[in-house]
Amino acid sequence: MAIEIWLKLGSMIIAVLLLFLKRKGMKEYLPVGMFASLYAQTGDYIAKYFGLWNFPNKHHPIRVFRVVDDVSIVVDMVVVPILVMFGVRYTPTKLKARVRWFFILATSLTIIEFLIERFTNALEYYNGYDWYHSYILWFISWFIWFEFHAWFSRE
Asked: Distances in Å between the alpha carbon of 30 and those of 27, 70, 78, 81, 110?
């Protein structure tokens, strides 16, 4: 089995296992997880349309679900929403600490994405898109997700 399949299945299993183990109090964060899923799928479709990145399923048969070949279902529907639920749950309230927290999250995710893009066939960048674009996208996305949660959970 290719490393790409192990990455996808492993990340999905770890994310679901973490959610199961820390499920107490996570119900409040389900809306931001659902929003993150929609956000990730929309970003993938826009990137595919403009040719910025792709999950090269047609050239390398590494799909977990054979019927879908447009987006990475595992990442967009499972891993990113669960990461966002945990990231928003543990976000500090003070702005300076929040910026530092989002910096740590964006840096960690960009490093993982960079390694996946360089050393596997699970992700490919095109047309000048590079790791620093992903970093900016991750960093801004954390603020969007946090503000969505703050807005949605207001009384």
From this structure: 5, 25, 12, 8, 24
For residue range 83-94, list pLDDT tens digits in order. Answer: 999 999 999 999
Looking at the structure of the chain, the number of domains it has is: 1
State pTM to two decimals. Answer: 0.85
CA atoms within 13 A on the CB side of 10: 7
Exposed e or buried b per residue across 132-152, where buried means at least 16 C-beta atoms within 10 angstroms of its C-beta: eebbebbbebbeebbebbeee
User: What is the extent of the structural domain holding 146?
Assistant: 3-152
Please provide the average confidence, as pLDDT, over all residues in the chain: 87
